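Notes from the 1:1 (GR / supervisor)

We went over the backlog. Supervisor wanted to see one worked example end to end before approving the batch request, so GR pasted a single chain during the call. The sequence is below; no edits were made to it. Supervisor asked that the structure be written out right there so they could see what the output format looks like.
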Amino acid sequence: MIRDTSAQDRPLEVRASRRPFIIAGAIVACIALAAVAWPSIRSMASANASISASRLTTAVVERGAFVRDVAAEGKVVAAVSPTLYAMSAGAVTLAVHAGDRVTKGQVLATIDSPELKAKLAQEMSNADQMRADALRAEVEARQQRAALQSTRANADIDQRTAENDLARQQKAFDAGAVAGMQVDKARDSLEKARIALTSANAGLGLKEDSLKLDVQAKQLAHQRQLLLVRDLQRQIDQLAVRSPVDGQVGQLFVAVNASVAKDAQLLSVIDLSALEVQMQVAESAARDLAIGMPGDISGNGKVWQGKVSSISPEVVNNEVAARLRFDGTTPDQLRQNQRLSVRVLLDARANVLTVRRGAFVEESGGAFAYVLHDGIAEKRPIRLGARSVEKVEIVDGLKPGDEIVIGGADAFQGAARVAVSR
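Structure output shown during the call:
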């Protein structure tokens, strides 16, 4: 006989259901959450678009020091790098090679110019001839002066003789020994002697001046010829091309024993004691550069102080070349064309409202910025002031603590309000 399961059956206890209470609690929680999040929901509902925060770059507006500068990479160049030229045509003999160390006054090249040497010899011969002419003119002047002085002396003697003869004739006439005609004749002879002496004195003075002028003319011609000889000698001396500075031979423009024309480039010399750093500055930033502005030059683990010494007047490839000169002595470890970092201080201000520079400066032209608040990026008009590489000055439209979008705002497409999801 099959046994049933009646002995195993037992009544179960009936429990009250809690499901209605759970549902009610969930509804209440949802209502409370919606009440709390309602402002954000309403703001997101009013936004024109929604963008993920990971696509944006933000920065906080701060008040503090503002430094406006220009940073760029520079290279070491020689402040003094003279190029030497041939002073005359001829064959060049080089005494140095590119890269050789040279001292001031050292002969770097020699030019052989037979034409210039022949011309110097000719002019020296002409100078000797003119010197002989000047000496001959002096001798002739002394001879003529002696002859004129002799004539004047004879005239003086004739005058004294005539005076004595007149005196004798006058005494004889007074004594009745001679006729009055003899006295008159003696008086006429005296007058003639006086005229002759006066003429001899005048002739001697005029001839003296004439002789002086002749001798002086010969001497001046000789001196002029000597100047010409000295100039030719100077040109001969310049055929030995000497270094104008202590430094290093840069570039050779001619080959050894090459024939060159006058004023042809021979070689360049680099003055390593006067180095500068040349940097390329964007055209927009170059407007604010001025000679004398301070700057920092860094490299080789060191920082040196410098000042802007020159600014190029022309723009090449939207850039302007500027040079900085070291304050004090030039560092010894620097080399030509060595790369260094350069930073020029344009302006420094304290207690200025600033924000980190970003793409919004170029994208909006500095006319507006998106301010983040409660997950919403709101477009707000602003006004920017001075700008540096790292920061921009806020003149109007923002306050300290405002968080703005400095990068990625182009995705907003100019919308007035954009939801930003975290």
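Supervisor's comment: The chain has four domains: 46-66+350-421, 72-78+271-348, 90-110+239-269, 114-237.
Batch request approved.
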